[in-house]
Amino acid sequence: MRPYREYTPDQAFLLPPSLTELIPEGDPVFFLREVIQRLDLEAFHKAYRCERGQPPYHPELMVGLYLYGAMRRTYSSRRLAELCQRDVACMYLAGRATPDYHTVGEFRQRFTNELKGLFLQVLVLCREAGLVRLGHVSLDGAKVPANPSKHKAMSYARMLQREPLLAAIAAAELAKVAEEAGTSPVQHMNFPDHTGSFSVSHCGTGGQVILADEVLALIRAKLGAGRYTC
Fold first, then answer.
1. How many CA atoms lie within 13 A of 133 on its CB side?
2. Would the pTM count as exceeding 0.70?
């Protein structure tokens, strides 16, 4: 029988490992922990100071839980409460505390304004770290006319309807150019299946090649002479 790596999920630890040992080095949760310790949470402490009853969860725990949920794009109170029991990084940030979803939702509803004020503190910390800088940003609201207007744009179905017309105009222009150059009419012209630009073969014995760009310019001149709507 082929040997396998050791697998003992029910093996107990002689000494319980630290949660930080189970989290990969460089995980953003460590940076978040440092940021939370530098935030001014006096508004939260002041609100709890005159209350009676069971001790509430520490504001650093609850604020860190919300910020960690924002990092993970998790905003549901039930999902945040579940992370405290299943996610190792969240367990480390919460200090192994397990607030239920009622507590998480009540904290968010009660301290909505205080949580909004933390964004300014975060911006100040980012500025001190050199991640952002304040300045003046000017936006130009001038309207500039562009080619892709509703009178010039074509749908795919409309392009299929107009393809024979464009092919006829291109063939006529190629014949005219060949006649002016003193060569025989165009032998043949290849069009792709509704994509890309077309290519043309040598005209007569003169060996002159009509470039696709020149033909397209002639077609645009023909179509642009009048009001072309699709």
1. 4
2. no
